[in-house]
Design goal:
Number of strands: 46
Distance between the termini: 57 Å
Number of helices: 0
Shape: elongated
Oligomer: single chain
Largest sheet: 6 strands, antiparallel
Radius of gyration: 29 Å
Strand content: over 45%
Structural class: mainly beta
């Protein structure tokens, strides 16, 4: 198939939306001049690390209904949208219908898969220099759905293994091959008549996470953790709306899925299937698809092509989030240094086009990696110190002030600068002077978007323990519950100045009584009781303590 490409340069522009700069670095429309073409399909974008050139993989279609009606195509665009070439590969009885999933090898070369089960290796000039045919234990291998390469050059291929029998079946198969194209191992699963692999993510330090999907009704998905030798570590059923896995440690990853109402849920788990923590965020249903996740040292950056930018810590706390008034658009989308590139095909009566837009990165806010600090219980006259890491993912900022509540102090002096990709560690000290509970906020103000940083702090001052092991509180107090947030139980701690009748209740946000935790006499001292509510819905509750004329309350957060 022959085609002539010309480059049409569209005027660049700068936009500022919702107080966040969305700068278009360049915009290009690649025009295909060939009467026989009826359209393009783009499936993958890669960026070559040294030249920063973009490689686009896809399919070119003609009007003809024949064996030559679909060709694989790879295009190269320079880092500024220039230096274009394209390579078309006529099928000629081979499996080159199109180029689909693609990845870059550690050597710099490119590897891509086609509809039929073959991997093709391309040099940086777009020439195919080698190929590997894939097989499975059954009759023949169908389409390649997923492809990923780890840091050691192992390639993981997710495909369909087709069994032609009395009733045709499609099993899901994950195959691992080494850098020489030799097969190392395969894992095959069948949960119904039709199955497929919908995600492949190399684990940190070796092995892989993969989502296998039952693609016939009722639809369901299964998460598999597999070690570097192909041994199954765990296999568990996951929500059918799960769509991404982020590997954050050698034995730990985060599963991302959306709910019917459009919320995003993040579930942190270990390779043996143990769930560590789960958080759900409601940014709106338009932000639950077409997401890019970028892993940093101890946090995850999430971008939606519909305008959402968010930071999530490894403990699944929301670090920051903001929205742009306009979407990035285009598919697929490639994350690159300093921004990202979106691509889309345009078919019109005047011809066929590939449209590329390169965006620079909006200015991201400075944030604290832990925005909830629990100092726990500290005796009067003692002190407790916590380290807080302030991270700057964007332009340099000047930290102007640190505002702390009573009982807290810091040895970090202001002002000071935090430059791009730097981390500043500040210490906060809690030294109580009286028996009380402290629930307050530390503010870190700087000259940039998102200021100030808000860090919630919990602490409680307690009476010193005497030599005989007893303590005598000076007053009644309801100390911070621990843990908080909790699921499904937490410990409620309080002090009693003299033997008294204590009533401790929990109410919901409507003021209705949820539970009468205790209502009896307590001796002088500090006491703890456990409150559990497995049947309660996630949300905010209030614990209230009443002793005579003394009343105290605190907020509880139940997260399931």
């Amino acid at each position: 198939m022959k085609a002539i490409f010309c480059l049409a340069i569209v005027i660049c522009y700068v936009g500022v939306l919702n107080a966040q700069p969305l700068h278009v670095e360049w915009e290009r429309t690649l025009h295909v001049s060939n009467d026989s073409l009826r359209g393009f399909g783009l499936f993958s974008i890669l960026e070559q690390s040294e030249s920063r050139s973009l490689y686009l993989f896809g399919q070119a279609n003609t009007w003809a209904i024949s064996d030559d009606s679909s060709d694989a195509v790879v295009m190269r665009v320079g880092q500024d949208g220039d230096s274009l070439w394209a390579r078309f590969y006529d099928r000629e009885g081979s499996s080159l219908y199109w180029f689909g999933p693609a990845a870059q090898l550690p050597t710099g070369e490119l590897v891509t898969a086609v509809y039929w089960p073959t991997l093709y290796y391309l040099d940086l000039a777009g020439n195919v220099y080698d190929s590997t045919d894939l097989t499975c234990e059954s009759n023949w291998l169908g389409s390649v759905e997923e492809l990923a390469v780890d840091q050691d050059g192992r390639t993981y291929i997710g495909a369909r293994c087709v069994v032609i029998d009395d009733v045709m079946e499609e099993n899901a198969v994950l195959t691992c091959i080494d850098e020489h194209g030799d097969s190392l191992w395969s894992v095959v699963r069948s949960y119904a008549q039709y199955n497929t692999v919908s995600l492949v993510v190399p684990a940190i330090g070796g092995g892989v996470f993969s989502i296998f999907e039952r693609s016939s009704w009722p639809y369901q998905r299964y998460l598999l953790a597999i070690d570097s030798n192909g041994n199954l570590i765990s296999e568990s059923e996951i929500p059918s709306r799960a769509f991404s896995v982020i590997a954050v440690a050698p034995d730990t990853a985060i599963l991302v899925y959306s709910t019917v109402s459009g919320e995003l849920t993040f579930r942190k788990f270990t390779t043996d299937g143990q769930n560590l923590v789960e958080r759900t965020y409601n940014w709106g249903p338009q932000y639950t698809s077409r997401l890019i996740f970028e892993l940093h040292n101890n946090w995850i950056e999430m971008r939606s092509m519909y305008g959402l930018f968010a930071g999530i810590s490894f403990s699944l706390d929301s670090l920051w989030s903001f929205q742009l008034a306009d979407s990035v658009g285009g598919f697929p989308v490639h994350r690159r240094e300093g921004g990202y590139v979106s691509a889309g095909s345009i078919n019109s009566p005047s011809g066929y086009y590939v449209h590329l837009v390169a965006y620079s990165e909006p200015r991201l806010p400075v944030f604290a990696i832990d925005n909830n600090i629990d100092f726990e219980s500290v005796e009067i006259g003692e002190e407790s110190v916590r380290q807080i890491e302030i991270i700057n993912p964007g332009d340099s900022v000047l930290v102007q002030a640190i505002t702390l509540p009573g009982g807290f102090s810091t040895n970090t002096t202001t002002p000071f600068w935090i430059h791009f990709d730097e981390t500043e560690t500040m210490s906060v000290t809690f030294a109580p002077t009286h028996v009380s509970s402290f629930v307050d906020t530390v503010y870190v103000s700087y000259d940039g978007p998102g200021s100030p940083i808000r860090i919630a702090v919990w602490a409680s001052g307690t009476m010193p323990v005497s030599e005989n092991g007893n303590s005598t509180p000076e007053s009644f107090a309801l100390l911070p519950a621990y843990p908080n947030p909790f699921n499904p139980s937490t410990s409620l701690t309080f002090t009693v100045a003299h033997e008294s009748d204590v009533q401790l209740n929990v109410f919901n946000v409507q003021g209705r009584l949820v539970s009468e935790v205790v209502h009896r006499s307590f001796a002088v001292g500090q006491h703890s009781v456990n409150w559990s509510c497995a049947e309660c819905a996630s949300g905010i509750y209030f614990a209230t303590m009443n002793v005579g004329t003394f009343t105290a309350s605190q907020k509880l957060l139940l997260l399931k």
